[in-house]
Amino acid sequence: MNLDFTPDEERFRAEVRSFLKARLPARIADKVRTGKRLHKKDHEEWHAILHERGWLASHWPPEYGGPGWTTAQAHIFDEEVSLAFAPRVIPFGVSMLGPVLIKFGTSAQKQHWLPRILDGTDWWCQGYSEPGAGSDLASLKTSAVRQGDHYLVNGQKTWTTLAQYADMIFCLVRTSAEGKKQAGISFLLIDMKSPGVEVRPIITLEGEHEVNEIFFTDVRVPVENLVGEENMGWTYAKYLLTYERTSEARVGAATASLAFLKQIAQTEEKGGRPLAEDPLFAARIARVEIDLENMKTTNLRVLAGSGSSAAPLELSAMLKIRGTEIRQELASLARIALGPYAQPFVSEALDEEFQGSRIGPDYAGGLAAHYFNERKLSIFAGSNEVQREIITKVSLEL
Amino acid sequence: MNLDFTPDEERFRAEVRSFLKARLPARIADKVRTGKRLHKKDHEEWHAILHERGWLASHWPPEYGGPGWTTAQAHIFDEEVSLAFAPRVIPFGVSMLGPVLIKFGTSAQKQHWLPRILDGTDWWCQGYSEPGAGSDLASLKTSAVRQGDHYLVNGQKTWTTLAQYADMIFCLVRTSAEGKKQAGISFLLIDMKSPGVEVRPIITLEGEHEVNEIFFTDVRVPVENLVGEENMGWTYAKYLLTYERTSEARVGAATASLAFLKQIAQTEEKGGRPLAEDPLFAARIARVEIDLENMKTTNLRVLAGSGSSAAPLELSAMLKIRGTEIRQELASLARIALGPYAQPFVSEALDEEFQGSRIGPDYAGGLAAHYFNERKLSIFAGSNEVQREIITKVSLEL
Amino acid sequence: MDFHHSAERSMLAETFGRFLQKRYPVEVRHEISASAIGWSPAHWAELAELGVLCGLVSETAGGFGGSGFDIAAIFEQLGRAMAVEPFLGTLMATRTLAMVGGHDGLIGDVLGGASILAFAHEESASRYDLTNIAAHARRDGDAWLLNGGKAVVPQLEAADDIIVSARIAGMKGERAGIGLFLVKRAAPGVVVEGYPLIDGGRAGELQLVDTPGLLLTDDAHPVLEDVVAAGIVALSWEAVGIMDMIKATTLDYLRTRHQFGVPIGKFQALQHRMATVALEIEQARSAAINAANALQGDRAKRERSVSAAKYTIGRAGTLVAEEAIQLHGGMGMTWELPVSHFAKRLVMIGHQLGDEDHHLARFIRFGQAA
Amino acid sequence: MDFHHSAERSMLAETFGRFLQKRYPVEVRHEISASAIGWSPAHWAELAELGVLCGLVSETAGGFGGSGFDIAAIFEQLGRAMAVEPFLGTLMATRTLAMVGGHDGLIGDVLGGASILAFAHEESASRYDLTNIAAHARRDGDAWLLNGGKAVVPQLEAADDIIVSARIAGMKGERAGIGLFLVKRAAPGVVVEGYPLIDGGRAGELQLVDTPGLLLTDDAHPVLEDVVAAGIVALSWEAVGIMDMIKATTLDYLRTRHQFGVPIGKFQALQHRMATVALEIEQARSAAINAANALQGDRAKRERSVSAAKYTIGRAGTLVAEEAIQLHGGMGMTWELPVSHFAKRLVMIGHQLGDEDHHLARFIRFGQAA
Q: Taking the C-alpha atoms of B371, D263, C329 and B383 in order, what is their torsion angle to the nearest 10 degrees?
């Protein structure tokens, strides 16, 4: 056994660092670090920089434009971009649809869509959840009825992240009502500008517009936008979910949050000493820090074991659970660290254009909102209850 | 609202204290305090002392020999005997069978059995659980078939506490296989000296003999030993379980354990200071202390609300859960406080006759064994999972 | 022992509760919260007329309440309605005035709704420690001039007068040498900066530069302790009111939301977690009862009980809020459902007058002293 | 990165595991534990012959292992079998001798099974603090004479020689001035009092009165840290082995035990708790991997990693043990089922070489230093 990185891997880390130093715009990193709102153009700017360097689609095979990294390299890259406060690459095109197209798409689909993902032509969003099908995803009702050279799509999707920016959506739709509910599902790519597509915002508890409802009314979708075979969409979705969950460990992001928390705890005072030296608060930080260090190794075991980022279902479910718990705990501790200044929330102050005075320490403005927003982590992307079901069924065989 | 005791109640407390000072044998209190084994004769001695004073059956109506206390008095009494390290009165006769007989027994049964409970003629044990019917108590199989003036009993009971000392056992037996499984159960009193009764010890994880299996093979039980009506035993058992659970809050016992734990934490040292001053350990103690103080009030609310020790099912289930969790946590902290000296376990040293040298501090000998033994609290007397089911069904209506 | 409110107190609570249900439903509450001033003078005037405010003040000082259980009965209702009006400041300020004596006129104005007071003690660096304040006051002839800042003062902009603590002697951390002053909102050197809170309420930063103030007491520490204890009783019962609402709405959701063909409340894993939530709420209620009961008691018992209560409310409140959101699934994340607002307020109560760790440490200190 | 044992190490672990499965089933283990001496010289001799002990010691000192992952592979198997033999003392004592050098003969005797060593450092009042010892040594001509006591020394009675720490200078709490000595069991002034442990093992109290000892080093602190770190790696992996066994046996029970007409493993509330148990075991395994990996590293990283591991094992171990008993219902309380013995040993590992709180505080200190 050996957990240490090779000299080659350490050289790679240095290369990533100098790239980030040179190319990550300070303005964007600063927004990430201080919890300011990222605009569409911020995401697009960073997306383009990574694409130019060939480092955008870290998990794609080289023949499709991936960098051809080992899992260790991908891990190092993830850690370094997080620590540098780079924005997370919006995952829907690059991390989710891309791998599905590469594995199940026709060559025409690959040739058409993959380059457009890389160069940012299409902003993708994900159409999985429905109002009546949350944890019970397979009970989805949005229907696609084949009519000659197109499908007619009717129904509703919900919790669609950043759909307000999206050009395209990949959807799970019902193409058959026969057999098990998992059996009649297909995987369809839909143009958001099609007539009959309507996006309505959902305002989340901290007042932000991040997720949406999408209504489909007699939307025509060309049959060539079907991915793989009709009624086989559940298989592709499961493949994608595995991908999604592994990434939900988000080791890099948690590491950056921990560093940020420690900085806050050094700045905040309690009884005339840094809060970081308060025995109870220091213990809280240390507990989550140890949990994170353990999870880093669990994550590496998954990566090393599978040779790719697709992981045995059990461990990826564990990573989803513990990864989100850790990030929620870090958000919670940052909120607690602020004391009374967790309360003020001037929403406009999260915009970079804001000129007014800030209340409390400069890092305080969005931390309570962030804490509340992060409650979603254990709900979305397969709730942690669903993950426990997976562990139960797949591994415990109960 | 008013949580304070009246001057009369405080006078009563003083009276209890002076009684305990005068009559509780120091030898017995010392054994309880230091976790030594209590023998049958120790229990009998204390039982007789309480009976002589008329304070044995604190919840019985005066006409049957109870003291006629208010709930506040019973509460005060419970607290004081615990703090004085009196042994807990073995509950099977006094606290469990007694109330059932008083409510459901014939006058012949009351006249015969109640005085014998009070004067200690009969040591009772409880025959509820069976190997195949633990949490699912109503699925019990031990059968009683009516044959003229007696029942013929066959089957097996388990987890029968102190059956090795018992003269009598009250049993739930199946008298009918028809209808719902709860419908065919009867409540029977069985002489342990009857032919066909066999007691086999179960050794628990710390090596003690406290519980037993009991086998019934063609045991003849006179029909006059049926309590109440045939096939109505489930009703009586539920009545009794409510009684049992309320008492499982064991506020007095927990208060005494907390005081003992604090004493240990003052004696043990960490980094040259009392362990009690270590911030993390102090926080552990304080958390359970606050939880206990809250539970004391929850318990008083139950007592005040019902006017008797039978409580609304929901709150009594909560008291069972939290009461046992608190006592388990106290046992756990005592174990942790010992450091390396939690490990030695010289079983004979728990006997008062033991003449050998003791390992570590004088309070150390039985604390780890006690911690392991206390794991039973969340399993027996209706496991805490069963209590959560009760809360769900009765109160949450889910 | 008696766990029932007196008939008068029950009647007040019921009247108040009915008023809020009818006149302060959640839509109205959101409107008020989103308004420029962030509270409703109209509702306030009506509540003053109803006599609700008098429940916060003892008879000797012109009210008809002021005991721990009076405060409890009122704030429990406030919690259920998520009311944002300046109740906490009113409680703490009038209680201060009642303790120092000689201000019955002003108390009368406040109880009648003619005047509003804020209570400004916490500062940007004090982190809940009552003695850790930097604002100071100096004599200038017959007058006192105050300098310094106060942080996150609830409904500061609404106040006509502000009660402000400031050092007149001694060092940070010392009990002696703290004064309490009555400062006019319109006095020279007063700068107020108001802002919204994440929980829908409103607060403000106070800056004082050579601001004249009327000395209320030059030995404020015992007053601060008592007044903060009353504030903690209030917040604890506000939290209990919120938790009962959260429990009810979450149970409703569990009974009606279907997944996998059954109400999600049929899933045992959720049932058992909900049972724990219900248990913690009952324990929190007991803690709040203990604190209300001890408010009239001797100092050590009072401080121990309020710290136990605030710790309990902090811990249980976070659990209840987080579990409620989780059990509501995505819906618990939306602005649309009241549960998210209850959850926000409940968690933020943990950031007022001391958090879980602060009060646990305090409980330990008072335990050792006893 | 590579998460596989080397071929040699895998083979040793497999051989050892097979041996234990065949020759050390739980009935035999209980017999050995209940015997007068509380361990099995016969098994020990066979294991020495198999070469298992050599896995604990580096090549340069006469073994063929000694790395963190060598120790891991052996102790994981010990945990699965609940073996009570003097492995921990052997590891810590031979590692001490290897570090100070010049005792290859004695190491050879130990690895060959001809001699057994105990490692005696902890005292009745030291509470896991390496520098907090009261035993002391003084020069007497060319010799050193030791006085003091050592507490709960694993398998002390089995030892032919004992490695003992004692102050030769300085005060409690100081790193400098601690010596390590080799003491003959038969030396004058040695009093050994053996006793059984709650987990089925055996230990003893050591008293030394003017006992001659051979000085191994007069700067023992770095040696103690390294040797204790190795001991923690060992205990962590013993715990991992136990937890895997507990998980397997609990899952078996959940699948076969029926209540309410179905296997209790069908109850979702239990499923979700078991999923958490499984998750915690994987996190504990990762912690144990980190510690084994860091054993060869620089001091700060090593100490930080072993404290993280011991904290994790302490916390997870208690959870796993308690949940296993609970999920077994009454059966988990019985002597008859192995699960109760696994649980006892697992919890008691938390009382050796530092508990959860001790190592959490230590992790914080090393984190601040780094």
A: -30
pTM summary value = 0.96
pLDDT at residue number A309: 46
* CB proximity D368 to C under 8 Å: no
Residues of A in contact with D356 (CB under 8 A): none
ipTM score of complex: 0.96
Instruction: Report pLDDT for A310.
Output: 47
For D:156-195, CB contacts with B below 8 A are: 172-173, 193, 195
Please say whether the beta carbons of C211 and C166 come within 8 A.
no
Distance of residue B374 Cα from the nearest chain C Cα, in angstroms = 21
Instruction: Report the candidate in B211, B162, B204, B255 with the shortest Cα–Cα distance to residue B369.
Output: B204
Shared-domain flag, residues C58 and C184:
no
Q: Which two tokens stand for residue C45?
A: 């005037």
Catalytic pick from B244, B248, B268, B329?
A: B244
Residue among D84, D119, D155, D333 with most chain B CBs within 10 A, to mutate:
D333
Whether pLDDT at A308 is above 70: no
Contacts of A53 (CB under 8 A, 6+ apart): A19, A23
List, as ranges, residues 137-156 from C with C-beta within 8 Å of D. none
Instruction: Report which of A227, A121, A119 is spatially closest to residue A175, judged by C-alpha positions.
Output: A227
Q: How far is CA C142 from CA C168, C185, C212, in A?
A: 14, 20, 10
Confidence of residue A360 (pLDDT cuts 50, 70, 90): very high
Concerning whether B244 is annotated as a catalytic residue, the answer is yes
Contact A173, A167 (CB under 8 A): no
Kindly report, residue by residue over D82-129, the tens digit of the pLDDT.
999 999 999 999 999 999 999 999 999 999 999 999 999 999 999 999
Question: Is pLDDT of C276 > 80?
Answer: yes
B125: alpha, beta or left, given left = phi > 0 and alpha = psi -120 to 50? Answer: beta
Question: Please, what is the average pLDDT of chain B?
Answer: 92
Interface residues on B facing C, Cβ-Cβ cutoff 8 A: 1-5, 72, 279, 282-283, 286-287, 289-291, 293-298, 300-301, 303-305, 314-315, 318, 321-322, 385, 387-389, 391-392, 395-398
Pick the closest to residue D348 from D201, D167, D177 (CA basis).
D201
Same domain, C203 and C244: no
Q: Is the pLDDT of residue C370 over 70?
A: no
Hey, are the CB atoms on D1 and A304 less than 8 Å from each other?
yes
Helix C299-327 and helix C338-349: axis angle, to 10°? 150
> Is residue D2 assigned to a domain?
no
pLDDT at B311: 57
Nearest CB neighbour to D2, from listed A2, A315, A398: A2
Average pLDDT of every residue of chain A: 92
Measured between alpha carbons, how far is B286 from B288 in angstroms, rounded to an integer? 6
Domain enclosing residue D201, as ranges: 118-218
Mutate to test the interface with C, among A211, A359, A377 (most CBs of C within 10 A): A359
With CA atoms as reference, report the closest residue to C196 among C61, C13, C35, C25: C35
B296 contact residues in C (CB cutoff 8 A): 286
The structural domains of chain A, ordered by start, are 7-89 (no CATH), 124-231 (2.40.110.10), 248-396 (1.20.140.10)
Is position C2 within any domain?
no
- Interatomic CA distance for residues D340 and D242, integer angstroms: 11
Assess contact for D341 and D322: CB atoms under 8 A: no
Chain D: residue nearest C271 by CA?
D269
- Residues C210, C335 within the same domain: no
Let me know whether D253 and D315 are in one domain.
yes
> Of A156, A205, A345, A357, which to mutate for an interface test with C (greatest number of C Cβ within 10 Å)?
A205
Whether residue D244 sits in one domain with residue D345? yes
Rounded mean pLDDT, D274-286: 97
